[in-house]
Amino acid sequence: MSMHAYRTHSCGALRLTDAGQTVRISGWVHRSRDHGQLLFVDLRDHYGLTQCVIDSSSPLFAVASGLRLESVLTVTGKVVKRSPETVNAKLPSGEIEIQIDELIVQSVSETLPFPVNADADYPEDMRLKYRFLDLRREGVHANIILRSKVIASIRQRMIDQGFTEFQTPILTASSPEGARDYLVPSRLHPGTFYALPQAPQQFKQLLMVAGFDRYFQIAPCFRDEASRADRSPGEFYQLDFEMSFVTQDDVFAAIEPVLAGVFEEFGRDRKVTPPPFPRITYDDALLKYGSDKPDLRNPIVIADVSEVFAGSGFAVFSNAVADGGVVRAIPAPGASSRPRSFFDKLNDWAREQGAPGLGYVVFAEGGAKGPIAKFLDAPRLDLLKKLSGAGEGDAVFFVCDKKAAAAKLAGQARLRIGNELGLNAEGEFRMCWIVDFPMYERNEDTGQIEFSHNPFSMPQGGLDALLNQDPLTIKAYQYDIVCNGVELSSGAIRNHLPEIMYKAFEIAGYPNSEVESRFGGMLNAFKYGAPPHGGSAPGIDRIVMLLADTPNIREIVAFPMNQQAQDLLMQAPAPVPMERLRELHIRVQLPPKS
């Protein structure tokens, strides 16, 4: 029987039990080491690495020693047991090597722009331009495989929960999701444009109106926005799902086992919050953690201590409180043993953030020290201890400002103090739901009332709330899943009633005519019997980033763009020839060179 042209085994398959066999493997030259009489060549493929060896007496020795790294070879030879002192315990194939009898060079590599067999850091633009080489490196290769396995696992878990996968259009109409759409000109309808979907939001709701009950999709989403470390410019993927006849609790119960399960399956023994995940209201999250994306690995809880300073001798704070400001306390457990420099450094950091500094009180040796302690009498100090939960040996830092600004700085200080004191739980995935988001917010610049989240959410209290409540006090059935301070998804119970939809948009300044022109399809559908429905859309990229333990999305996407939204490998975006533009009835008018 003739041997396969390229391989009888992969480079990761051979073991001691194969010794004595004649085999053939193909792969890339990972390393080559010349020991004078012997030349060792490590051959690598998708599955692993096998050491091959050739003796200087072989007629092929000259060819083998002239091989450039990353050239592609086919090697035929006998599997032999390595001597005990040469066994490589790190490699599954480390007990054997192949004695090269035949060697065919399938493809010669040019000199490499950067080495593939080392994990050194290279400029990102270079890595992206030669992404096909970068993907040969062990770490990135493993991340892309991880991503594939995570998606397969999510898909199976959703199907097991009774969800059906659907595809929704990529060429669609423009929608106000909040970011800019990518537009695609229509040749057949001059002067008109399709948009790439920022999310399949309207389609998934229409599938519910169509009676499909439980939908999901690993959906690409397109947004023409600047890059962030945790979000690709251009495109990203989400686990989009929607369910009919459900309350908020039903949505949580359906998705929690999917997420917890995936984090347990791929988390490499890191601890995962067991369902049901804790629920924190939006208002509580801003108060206690200074963020609507709280990292619960950090045990510090912020407290409102405005009443400690109201009418106190510390005029800076008491005047601010009288003027509607708040004082937030960030406890620092065990910080009394820290040197003065610890406190000074935090103070300098707060100044860099534009604050006047971080005042503090230290509870030690039965008393209170620090720049603010002398302004607080015993009853006030006792109240401070009670409200902040601080005790002997702890310090408490203070932030004083208007509510939103105080929450933000206190939240940053909480994270910083947690890091400095080494308080964060390591090796854990801490999940929570943030619930009861406000339906509306006031735009600081224009004073207008705007949607603060998804405009298609059901307001708590329904039409009655929209008609009779101050819009800024209305909560929505909206919720985010947060893991270790990363927002994995936002979702909502949707508004399925046309009259509520008209009113909700009217409050945000949209006349009925505009609602009809922009969401005519969905609005019209709601007039023909719509079920109560809701869902969410956890970000695939962010889940994989957390599992791979990288803060950079470009490490877990096979062919990412750079931060300027350019694909350096394929050279996109690029100009197109004039005749193509003419077919599309488009003329390009570039901004004047400044």
Shape: globular
The number of helical segments is: 17
End-to-end separation in angstroms reads: 72 Å
* Spatial strand order of the main sheet: 6-9-10-24-23-22-19-12
Structural class: alpha+beta
Poorly predicted runs are none
Q: What's the average pLDDT? A: 95
Strand elements, count: 24
The biggest sheet amounts to: 8 strands, mixed
What does this structure look like?
The chain is α+β, with helices and mostly antiparallel strands. The protein contains 17 helices and 24 strands. Strand 22 (478-483) and strand 23 form a beta hairpin. Helix 4 (138-160) runs antiparallel to helix 6. The chain is globular, with a radius of gyration of 30 Å. The termini are far apart. The model has no long low-confidence stretch (mean pLDDT 95).
Topology:
Layout: E1 22-34, E2 38-45, E3 48-55, H1 61-65, E4 72-81, E5 96-107, H2 124-129, H3 131-134, H4 138-160, E6 164-165, E7 183-185, E8 193-195, H5 201-209, E9 214-223, E10 234-244, H6 248-266, E11 271-272, E12 279-281, H7 282-289, E13 303-304, H8 306-309, H9 315-322, E14 326-332, H10 340-352, E15 359-364, E16 367-369, H11 378-388, E17 395-401, H12 403-420, E18 428-429, E19 431-435, E20 440-442, E21 449-451, H13 462-468, E22 478-483, E23 486-493, H14 498-507, H15 512-526, E24 533-536, H16 540-548, H17 578-583
Parallel strand pairs: 3-5, 6-9, 11-18, 12-19
Antiparallel strand pairs: 1-2, 1-4, 2-3, 4-5, 7-8, 9-10, 10-24, 13-14, 14-17, 15-16, 15-17, 19-22, 20-21, 22-23, 23-24
Helix pairs in contact: 4-6, 4-16, 5-15, 7-12, 13-14, 14-15
